[in-house]
Design brief:
Helix content: over 70%
Number of domains: 1
Mean pLDDT: 91
Radius of gyration: 17 Å
Low-confidence stretches: none
Order of helices and strands: HHHHH
Number of helices: 5
Strand content: under 5%
Shape: elongated
């Protein structure tokens, strides 16, 4: 009887995991900041956090649901979970806290958060492939 094939375990440093989490958070803050700037709303710092916190909480749920700390750089497993968590969680929390949720905003958030949260992981994966060659 042959032993089962085991995949190599890639142990990521705590720094890599923290850097991925911080990158997600910063990109969500960028999304919120650009959105607030486009609509010329005052109180920049507090306003950005007011806009961002539901999406940050949703992204955190995506991290937990996907166990992102196991492979925070994974495009499909982690990137998609964080993106969809940020989007769905963000919209639900905005609804629950009487913040604006309209179809155009949902579409912009869908596209923007997808580009940012999945996009940086795609760039990272592409760069890793290029370095290997």
């Amino acid at each position: 009887m042959t032993p089962p094939i085991q995949r190599p375990v890639h142990v990521l440093s705590k720094g890599t995991i923290a850097a991925a989490a911080v990158t997600d958070a910063v990109l969500i803050l960028v999304f919120a900041g650009v959105g607030r700037d486009a609509h010329q709303r005052g109180d920049v710092v507090a306003g950005v956090f007011l806009t961002a916190w539901p999406f940050l909480a949703g992204a955190a749920l995506g991290w937990l649901a996907s166990k992102a700390w196991r492979n925070p750089l994974a495009v499909r497993r982690t990137g998609l979970a964080v993106w969809l968590g940020a989007l769905a969680g963000g919209m639900v929390l905005r609804l629950l806290t009487n913040q604006t949720v309209v179809l155009p905003f949902i579409i912009v958030a869908l596209l923007s958060l997808g580009l940012l949260l999945v996009g940086w992981r795609l760039v990272w994966a592409g760069a890793r492939r290029l370095r290997k060659n």
